[in-house]
């Protein structure tokens, strides 16, 4: 039975919107809490156990590397077994491993836990959300994807101050356990009772599937196979540009430690991280809309320009940076998390068109993620060796400059390339993009 065939009383609100609410809870509990709240714990763990910042930062580096290696295999499981089963196992394993930090006293256990979490969380973050949204929304797909992914920043902004208060009241070990419990309470009910991979599982059709979308609302993107004189150079530039964007978005777990390094307490440190999450939320919503209205080239330059400005403010502020200036700079730096999501995806689609997008996007993202994981550790070690984050801010500013040079060269190459003159509708392009993720 299609949705339009249901009785009128049941057609007031399409069930796709309930799926969206479930995706928001899912994304907020997984990425928003279990990923974006790590930084506030790093500060307390290092202070308690005497670890160097770079050594503990290797926890996230190892996890990211394992995730990138295991993801192709777990994505195959999503096709063979029920979504509910796979996500329940992954979420339970990830939350238990997060909580298990309360038992650790030596770095080796963090590293072992990171490797195991990389396995469990390999297809937990973001990917299931984009798959579900794409299946349930044929109309307003971009809005639904952007809103659901922005939930990670929203819940990160809310939970970081809560985590800091729990650390002050209970100690970081108990706070880690309660944080994992909160994430489980948000995510597991959504998985079991709300989320479904396709509307057909519940006897519905996707939102907007039975409507004819007006032509003026359809945004077409070039299709066909581009012809580049030096395809290896084009691929290398795409990897370079995406890696630069992904490198700059590795500060979400370092901002709390940075605030402490310039003399502020844990409460202010947590708020600094929350400001970065706010930048993440606004960046994903606004930049996504601008990418549709403008193009990925212009939008990418704006995004990285904002990120570069944030680093410059932090450099100039030095060790005596004003508290509110630090909040503003942190918010601007949060745009990097939006850039790290949008730029590799949309740039690959624009450069390789629909025909080559799926093949190239996976490679570009895998290498970029690997490089950014190494960058996460380097940021930590520069603090350990210098006692300040200034050097890492300078390196990241140079990364932004490299980005601008690379994207200018790549855009010139793509303008001169021959492309078969075809177009495809935005829904088809988005479907291919989500399937590639």
Report on this model:
- It contains 16 helices and 4 strands.
- With 437 residues, it is an all-alpha fold.
- The strands form 2 sheets. It has a two-stranded antiparallel sheet. It has a two-stranded antiparallel sheet with strand order 2-3.
- Helix 11 packs antiparallel against helix 12.
- It is globular.
Describe this protein with a few key phrases.
single chain, 437 residues, mainly alpha, two-stranded antiparallel ribbon, disordered N terminus
- CA radius of gyration: 22 Å
* H-E order: HHHHHHHHEEHHHHHHHEEH
- Approximate helicity band: over 70%
Distance between the termini: 30 Å
Any low-confidence stretches, pLDDT <50, length ≥5? 1-5, 212-222, 421-437
What is the count of helical runs?
16
Apparent shape? globular
Q: What proportion strand?
A: under 5%
The main pleated sheet reads as:
2 strands, antiparallel
In short:
This protein has 437 residues and is mostly helical.
Task: Set out the fold topology.
Layout lengths: L14 H21 L2 H12 L3 H28 L2 H17 L7 H14 L6 H10 L4 H30 L1 H22 L27 E3 L2 E2 L3 H18 L6 H7 L4 H28 L2 H22 L5 H11 L1 H52 L3 H26 L2 E2 L2 E3 L1 H11 L1
Antiparallel strand pairs: 1-4, 2-3
Helix pairs in contact: 1-6, 1-7, 1-8, 2-10, 3-5, 3-14, 4-5, 4-8, 6-7, 6-16, 7-8, 7-11, 9-14, 9-15, 10-11, 11-12, 11-13, 11-14, 12-13, 12-14, 12-15, 14-15, 14-16
């Amino acid at each position: 039975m299609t949705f339009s065939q249901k009785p009128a009383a049941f057609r007031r609100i399409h069930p796709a919107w309930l799926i969206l609410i479930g995706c928001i809870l899912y994304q907020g509990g997984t990425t928003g809490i279990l990923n974006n709240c790590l930084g506030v714990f790093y500060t307390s763990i290092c202070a308690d156990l005497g670890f160097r910042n770079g050594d503990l930062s290797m926890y996230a580096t190892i996890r990211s590397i394992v995730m990138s290696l295991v993801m192709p295999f777990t994505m195959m499981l999503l096709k063979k077994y029920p979504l509910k089963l796979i996500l329940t196992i992954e979420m339970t394993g990830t939350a238990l491993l997060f909580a298990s930090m309360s038992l650790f006293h030596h770095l080796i256990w963090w590293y072992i836990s990171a490797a195991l979490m990389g396995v469990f969380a390999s297809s937990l973050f973001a990917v299931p959300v984009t798959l579900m949204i794409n299946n349930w929304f044929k109309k307003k797909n971009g809005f639904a994807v952007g809103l659901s992914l922005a939930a990670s920043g929203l819940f990160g902004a809310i939970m970081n101050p809560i985590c800091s208060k729990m650390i002050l009241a209970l100690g970081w070990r108990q706070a880690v356990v309660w944080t994992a419990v909160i994430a489980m309470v948000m995510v597991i009910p959504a998985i079991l009772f709300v989320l479904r991979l396709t509307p057909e599982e519940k006897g519905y059709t996707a939102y907007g599937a039975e409507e004819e979308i007006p032509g003026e609302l359809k945004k077409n993107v070039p299709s066909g196979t581009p012809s580049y004189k030096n395809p290896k150079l084009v691929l290398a530039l795409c990897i370079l540009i995406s890696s630069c964007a992904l490198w700059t978005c590795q500060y979400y777990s370092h901002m709390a430690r940075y605030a402490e390094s310039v003399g502020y307490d844990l409460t202010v440190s947590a708020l600094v991280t929350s400001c970065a999450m706010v930048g993440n939320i606004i960046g994903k919503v606004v930049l996504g809309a601008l990418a549709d209205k403008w193009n990925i080239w212009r939008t990418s330059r704006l995004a990285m320009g904002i990120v570069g400005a944030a680093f410059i403010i932090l450099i100039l502020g030095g060790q005596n940076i004003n508290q509110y200036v630090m909040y503003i700079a942190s918010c601007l730096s949060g745009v990097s998390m939006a850039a790290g999501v949008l730029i590799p995806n949309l740039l690959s689609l624009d450069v390789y068109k629909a025909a080559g997008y799926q093949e190239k996007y996976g490679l570009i993202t895998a290498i970029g993620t690997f490089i950014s994981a190494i960058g996460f550790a380097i940021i930590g070690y520069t603090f350990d060796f210098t006692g300040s984050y200034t050097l890492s801010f300078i390196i990241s500013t140079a990364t932004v400059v490299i980005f601008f040079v690379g994207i200018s060269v790549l855009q010139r190459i793509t303008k001169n390339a021959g492309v078969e003159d075809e177009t495809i509708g935005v829904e088809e392009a988005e479907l291919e993009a989500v399937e590639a993720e």
